[in-house]
Amino acid sequence: MEQIHFNNRTFFSKYERIDQELTDDLILDHLHHKVTLAHSLILPGQKITNIVIDYNGDDAQRFYHHLQRKLKALNIENFTPFQSKTAKHLHVYLHYAPMPLQKGIQLGKIISKKLSDKLPGQWRIYPNDNLPEAYNILNLPYDQL
Predict the structure, then answer these.
(1) Residue 32 lies in a domain
(2) Is omega for the bond preceding 44 within 30 degrees of 0, making it cis?
(3) Which of 3, 34, 42, 92 could disulfide-link 53, Cβ–Cβ 3.0 to 4.6 Å?
(4) Among residues 67, 33, 46, 25, which one has the least CA distance to residue 127?
(5) By C-alpha distance, which of 122, 109, 105 is closest to 64?
(6) Is residue 83 part of a domain?
(7) How much is the pLDDT for 13?
(8) pLDDT for residue 55
(9) Which parts of the chain sit beneath pLDDT 70?
(10) Angle formed by the axes of helices 101-116 and 60-73, to 10°?
(11) CATH code for the domain of 90
């Protein structure tokens, strides 16, 4: 198991990195829960095109309803919700033109702060500067909502 040392903490990688093309067969295996595939949010050149809100709480429907209002208030209209592995787990991808990683992290913190005004903190925002780059990955979603 790979160990990653970051900010005086040790992380243990739960994924095996495989550098190969993503094929239709691999995606089908993922959708049928035979394998778990993950993707990095950080592109070459320290750029991102998505900020992801990873919700794992008690009421995904209520969270998503509240999130939609907050995103609208922030003039964020280009987003896609996905069902993850369990019914209580929701990934919401906010789509952007390529932007520097640090700008995306700061925008994610603003969004998280706005959400925390009304909701208990049952989400994480990715990318996240409190995690090493190898941990700024997410499982591929299963179904679009």
Answers:
(1) no
(2) no
(3) 92
(4) 46
(5) 122
(6) yes
(7) 67
(8) 95
(9) 1, 11-13, 15-16
(10) 120
(11) 3.90.920.20
* pLDDT per position as a tens digit, 53-69: 999 988 888 899 999 99
Give me the residue label for tokens 């209580």.
Answer: 88
Contacts of 60 (CB under 8 A, 6+ apart): 87, 88, 89, 90
Element (H, E) at 114: helix 101-116
Whole-angstrom distance, CA of residue 37 vs CA of residue 35: 6
Name residue 141's amino acid.
Answer: P
Tokens at 92, concatenated: 């919401």
Q: What are phi and psi of 38, to 5 degrees?
A: -130, 160
Q: Which amino acid is at 111?
A: I
- How far is it, in rounded angstroms, from Cα 18 to Cα 137? 14
Give the CA-trace dihedral at 27, 32, 36, 39, to 10 degrees: 30
Return the H-helix or E-strand segment holding 81. Answer: strand 79-83
CA distance 95 to 46: 16
Please check whether residue 9 lies inside any domain of the structure: no
100, part of any domain = yes
